[in-house]
Amino acid sequence: MKILIMGCGRVGARLASLLDEDGHEVTILDNDTYSFRRLPPSFSGTALFGNGTDEEALKKAGIEDADIFVAVTQGDNRNVMACQVAKHIFKVPRVVCRIYDPLRAEMYSALGLETISPTKVFAQLRREKIEG
Amino acid sequence: MYIIVVGGGRLGYYLLKALLNEGHEVLVLEKDARICKTITDELGSVCFRGDGCEAATLAEVGTGRADMFIAVTGDDEDNLVACQVAKHKHNVPRTIARLRNPKNAALFKKLGVDVTVSATDIILEAIEREVPTHPVTQLMSLEEKGLVIVDVKISAASPMAGKLVKDLDMPKDSKLAIIIPAEGSAQVPTAQTVLQAGDQIIAVTPENTKEALRNALGGK
């Protein structure tokens, strides 16, 4: 599968290298090339400098024939905007958006984005651990 | 009117002042405590500290009864999300977003923002207006209707000088609104009006036939 990841932070870099190991065609986008240090030397995908909320940059990263777009930058709003561009402008079949703020995540789920709120997931996991 | 402004930067600050002067009920949402304090000290309790992208904050300031919601932070994505939350969670009838990147205009419209304002585009339009040799300049765009109002100058060299209005090969849905002759008062053109060199014409045309109108009136 062709996978485009926006944001080469800890999560983005790790996800990229895992998917790369599994044999997918991975492109990872970040607006700071220093972030690419997080990618392992074995990474065989493409690391590209660019702003994921910019249509031109997304085109360069090959969004037009991507099967999945994943937005995992630090900014909820940046992720939301990039995902809406991917979904509504480029019609990427599957778009996944990380949104820390649970309320915002709920709203965008209702608007049709596939969202994941680490805040909610982690709190839930902790609660289950603590309460046994 | 109750108007909420997101972002208390320079743009937000002067917007707030102007809207208050016009007698509106205005509230600025600003994340930065220091900026918030400055505004409050100077203009009274018209600034609320909080994130304008959060539904909970917006609920707290009564966004549900707001007539207008204006997002003017320095980040396009923040302005987009703030407007979307206002629209979808609080049903604000009119949302306005400031754009840094003018290319985002179409996207924002598609995603439900009612009006976008781009400083880049406004300055470009101003430059176009100020260039005196340009025969057709855009004065204003009526975005909802997809129309633009343009200003056309008939030069002495123009093949249109001396022609009747009815003989012009006007694109569909383009209308000449007013003719301002070099001397004398403005008049509403009729089919029998003769165009003269030095005339200034104000016309209304659909956005996509601006070029065709330009050609019809002899401008290049």
Describe this structure in words.
The complex is a heterodimer of chains A (132) and B (220). Chain A is an alpha/beta fold and 132 residues long. Chain A has one domain (2-131): 3-Layer(aba) Sandwich (Rossmann fold), CATH 3.40.50.720. Chain A is built from 5 helices and 6 strands, in the order βαββαβαβαβα. Chain A is globular. Chain B is α/β, with parallel strands linked by helices. Chain B folds into 2 domains: 2-122, Rossmann fold (3-Layer(aba) Sandwich); 133-216, Alpha-Beta Plaits (2-Layer Sandwich). A 6-stranded parallel beta sheet of chain B has the order 3-2-1-4-5-6, sandwiched between helices. Chain B has a 4-stranded antiparallel beta sheet with strand order 7-8-10-9. In chain B, helix 2 links the parallel strand 2 and strand 3 (47-49). Chain B is elongated and about 65 Å long. At the A-B interface, helix 3 and helix 4 of A face helix 4 of B.
Task: Give the tally of structural domains of chain A.
Answer: 1
Alpha-beta content class of chain A: alpha/beta
What's the end-to-end separation of chain B, in Å?
Answer: 45 Å
Low-confidence stretches of chain B: none
Helix segment count of chain A? 5
CATH class of the largest domain in chain B: Alpha Beta
The mean pLDDT of chain B is 89
Give me the strand/helix succession of chain A. EHEEHEHEHEH
What is the count of β-strands of chain B?
A: 10
Give a quick summary of the entry.
The complex is a heterodimer of chains A (132) and B (220). Chain A has 132 residues and is an alpha/beta fold.
List keywords for this structure.
heterodimer; A: 132 residues; alpha/beta; Rossmann fold; six-stranded parallel sheet; 5 helices; B: 220 residues; Alpha-Beta Plaits; four-stranded antiparallel sheet; 31% helix
